[in-house]
Design a protein that fits this description.
Blueprint lengths: L1 E4 L47 E2 L2 E2 L26 E2 L6 E16 L10 E16 L3 E15 L10 E16 L2 E10 L21 E9 L3 E12 L9 E16 L8 E19 L2 E18 L2 E14 L2 E15 L8 E9 L35 E13 L2 E11 L25 E10 L1
Parallel strand pairs: 1-20
Antiparallel strand pairs: 2-3, 4-5, 5-6, 6-7, 7-8, 8-9, 9-10, 10-11, 11-12, 12-13, 13-14, 14-15, 15-16, 16-17, 17-18, 18-19, 19-20
Length: 454
Amino acid sequence: MKFVWLAGSAALVVAGLAPSMAGAQSVTPKAAAEPASPASTAYPTSAAGDGNTVGGYNQSRWAEDWRKLCDPAKRDDPIDALKCVKLTEDGKSYVTFSGELRTRMNLTTNPNLREVQQQRQDIARIVGGADVHLGDHFRVFGELGRAELQGINLGTPNANLRNKLAVQQLFAEVKGKALGLDVGVRAGRQEFFDGPQLLTVGRDNNTLYFVLDGVRAYARGTNARVDVFDLNYVNYGYEGISDDKTNPDVRFSGATFGFRLSPKLFGGSKLYLDPFIWRLRNRRAVWGPTTGLEERYFLGLHAYGDAGPVNIDWTVNNQRGTFVNRPISAWQAFIAQTYRLGKKPDSPRVGIHFDYGSGGGAYDRAGPLNTTNGLFGNNIYYSYGLFLTPTNLLYTAPNFTFTPIKGVRVAAEYGFAWRPDEFDAVYRASGVAWAGTQNVRGKKVAEVARLQAV
């Protein structure tokens, strides 16, 4: 058994244009969000697949709606004027400027679970963007990012950690009404959050966000929605904006459906059900000693929301397909819930989550591959040391969350990790196997204690 104690500290400095949503990848289920997206007025924006908006701010700046600040009487400070710079007298064409400066320090002792010099990452994220609205039906959003990284024992940082300048997002969107539905198409480089957080997030722990290139279209009604997409992964370069390229080897496509359940359920609730069918095609997938073409299909169901004092975030998905000439047969389940101990929204919560990702066959030359793929999920959900991911993993953790002072949330949990197949490896957050762990017998992997304040 390996015992892991994780502790970290972070400092957040906001330029004032738009604060970072650093809590978007917490250990507890998604918090209730406030509608503030220009993309949809009928279907609840907190469930529309565009991330969470709280207090008007969203991790994705394009999902924010600052049209109210076109009225000078509603502005509180000089920066508010940058949220609506009119291009026409009637205000239907305008620009919203945004930006972020985030500094963070990650200190990891015994990095990679080895007795070596500690690692210290001094991180600075610098982002500036503009959302140009030309009338009610067309807009262009662009965002440049710079990733600074200094410290001790850094090794060779990836380009999403250290980057002189990158086009983090750049897309055009056409939207409108059709058959009583809100419809739209976005084409270009963009973030993608339309799924469970253990499968699809922007990976806020990195200096630059995880982004994709391609097309995404949606249609949203009062109680139902559909979102279809065809995207490719992006390979960041280290230099200027010309070396951030579409990765033609990794293609992610599919459809997500959403249904708002009756608010009368359980005596009053806000519950949503999102079936999804996705495909991941990777020409250079690596499992064990083999590299080759993988076509993996995800057929799943995501249920989440609130019913009285209970918050749930449940996902089950079956993964099928082929890896080289071998069949894929794998399962994942993420079952998280908390219970509010009081009437107030910030009352303490107790909870527990169970997570399962099947394993087996990664080091075989024939037969089925039972190892799951975690896509680009929350890479700090289990540890800020990036030690674990829901691939060949069985994990459970009771947790407790409370608010000691206004605006500060403290979350504590103690987790237990096993691997379902002891002949398969333990996998880190990047999806890469810990070398040699497939040769170590025993299913117990770790116990993880976590304490964080956000």
